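Design a sequence for this backbone.
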């Protein structure tokens, strides 16, 4: 019986740590500088690009904050945390949850591209390439 309890505790510990490890891996995959290439969405379903807006946007993601530079100037600095939450797109997703009331964003990294999805209706999905 004692061995069964020990094995049960080890299995519980293993599975408890795996979710935390996944969050750490996800966070490490987004750390760095990312250059905006396009955003799609809104009520009209428009696509915005650097050439159509005249804006160059770079986001710098660290362990604790996201800095947004627009045309080389700091436009915002937002503390964040990564949490698994229910998405408006369905299911549980990893999200960047911001302080100061900014809406959360679900995200995915595919190769050298970062996709940020605003977690609100009629909002945008933005695509960035790693610098």
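Sequence:
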């Amino acid at each position: 019986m004692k061995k069964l309890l020990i094995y049960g505790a080890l299995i519980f510990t293993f599975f408890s740590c795996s979710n935390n490890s996944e969050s750490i891996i996800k966070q490490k995959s987004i750390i760095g500088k990312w250059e905006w290439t396009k955003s799609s969405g809104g009520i009209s379903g428009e696509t915005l690009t650097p050439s159509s807006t005249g804006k160059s946007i770079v986001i710098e993601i660290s362990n604790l904050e996201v800095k947004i530079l627009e045309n080389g100037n700091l436009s915002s600095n937002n503390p964040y945390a990564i949490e698994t939450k229910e998405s408006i797109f369905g299911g549980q997703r990893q999200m960047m949850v911001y302080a100061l009331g900014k809406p959360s964003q679900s995200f995915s990294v595919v190769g050298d591209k970062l996709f940020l999805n605003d977690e609100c209706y009629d909002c945008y999905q933005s695509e960035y390439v790693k610098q």
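Residues 2-130 form a domain with the Lipocalin fold (CATH 2.40.128).
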